Amino acid sequence: LSGLEWGAETSTAGVREQLFDLHRGERRVPGVFWSPGDGAAPGAAGDLAPRPLVLIGHGGSGHKRQDYVLAVARRFVRHHGFCAAAIDGPCHGDRRDPQRSSERLSLLDFSQLWQSDATMTDEMVADWREVLAALGDDGGVGRGPVGYWGLSMGTIIGLPLVAAEERVGVAVLGLMGLTGPTRERIAADAPRITCPVLFLLQRDDELFNYEAGLALFDALGAADRRLHVNVGGHVDVPADEFAATERFLARHLSAG
Amino acid sequence: LSGLEWGAETSTAGVREQLFDLHRGERRVPGVFWSPGDGAAPGAAGDLAPRPLVLIGHGGSGHKRQDYVLAVARRFVRHHGFCAAAIDGPCHGDRRDPQRSSERLSLLDFSQLWQSDATMTDEMVADWREVLAALGDDGGVGRGPVGYWGLSMGTIIGLPLVAAEERVGVAVLGLMGLTGPTRERIAADAPRITCPVLFLLQRDDELFNYEAGLALFDALGAADRRLHVNVGGHVDVPADEFAATERFLARHLSAG
């Protein structure tokens, strides 16, 4: 393991936020770690160790600190005293091509990447697993209960991660279906997921076909799986549904 | 209006429970009314008037005081200070044939009734609407926000009620589909429902086909409609899903 290289640290209303990089061979994995502001910094003291950790996968064209990722992370820290971590997706955030003028990728960019790079899923799963291991080495974070939260691209990458990483004991997934370039991979991984899952779909999703989403929900191996469908398009998940995902993860992680 | 004939009153941990009968022509409609134990009895003082009212429709083979109806009613009274009311279904509870030895109907009994009596839905909708009007005359209850909660038979009867009664402003429905003897009636009424709806389905429902349930969710006219699917059979709705229905109704009724 290369270990984590800690960067800038800030604190906002009781939430400490620390940037980090993990170097995995040639790859740089830029991430961010959130913890209660009154806790010790990772590596300094052990009091973060028993806290549950939520891994958050951002959406296509977003990044590790996009608005809703920040909001979700801060809810877990403030309301439950958990830790949270996010990393940039492939070519997203601080992994984007420095030649590109825009800070955000377009959804078309991600779609092309998903289409063209067969190693994308495996490399992202490996990134996440090394980050999880390195956080554990660096203060013991993540040795307690671990949950995953990720929709859309956060499910394209996160579903294989949850299937592969047995330390993830509960997941929020959705806004995705049995479709796309990695359809077969997703279909093979879904039955391997046996931890509790809350799965979200939007009835009028313009990016992912509703029936393909229902099929992915059915393919999950979890005995405790729940489907929540709301009306509206891909980005119209209601605010109180975010609260429901928080309750679902917190209930399982606090009991773990 | 014939008005309500009030019967026995009991009180349990802050919840007052009063039996009533409403006489509508030849029909006797036996019901029960729950209110906060510290509130005035209907007709005595006006302080129940502004409280939200939840109408609860029980399931096939059950009755107005079956365990989960009591539990739902008491939650609304205790947690939110609302009032609640339930009436026996057709040939259920105190409307059952006195010749029958068993207190409970079998599901087969209800299925036969649903099949054979074309007036069942209209008569039950009329029963509910007169009860709602009579509660309003008798202390002003139900002049504030009104919600409906009913699954399975509680949706077979409740969906037409919610479509017909404009004072119902929010509903929890489910465990039913576009199927059965009243399929066409349900299909015609569903688009007329425009209040917010939380709709529940069980993925492995042995009584109602899942796809027919999805079709009924799609047929609802409500702009704000949510679908929650849980695994398991018809009676396996998880306990925390009942809590979700409570939150959903309370959020809308408290804002109303």
Going across the biggest sheet of chain A, name each strand in turn: 1-2-3-5-4-6-7-8-9
| Range of strand content of chain A | 15-25%
- Unreliable segments of chain A (pLDDT under 50, ≥5 consecutive)? none
Tell me roughly what share of residues is in helical segments of chain A. Answer: 25-40%
- What structural class results from the helix and strand content of chain A? alpha/beta
What would the principal axes of the Cα set say about the shape of chain A? Answer: globular
Biggest interface between chains? A-B, 16 and 16 residues
Verbal overview:
- The structure is a homodimer of 256-residue chains.
- With 256 residues, the first copy, chain A, is of the alpha/beta class.
- Chain A is built from 8 helices and 9 strands.
- Chain A has a 9-stranded mixed β-sheet, with helices on both faces.
- In chain A, helix 3 packs across helix 5.
- The longest helix of chain A is centred in the middle third of the chain and has 18 residues, at 120-137.
- The first copy, chain A, is globular.
- At the A-B interface, helix 7, strand 9 and helix 8 of A face helix 7, strand 9 and helix 8 of B.
Give the gist of this structure:
2 copies of one chain form a homodimer. Chain A is α/β, with parallel strands linked by helices and 256 residues long.
Keywords:
homodimer, about 260 residues, alpha/beta, nine-stranded mixed beta sheet, globular
Set out the fold topology.
The structure is a homodimer of 256-residue chains.
Chain A: E1 4-12, E2 15-24, E3 27-36, E4 53-57, H1 67-80, E5 83-87, H2 107-116, H3 120-137, E6 146-150, H4 153-156, H5 158-164, E7 168-174, H6 183-189, E8 197-202, H7 210-219, E9 225-230, H8 239-255
Helix pairs in contact in A: 1-8, 3-5
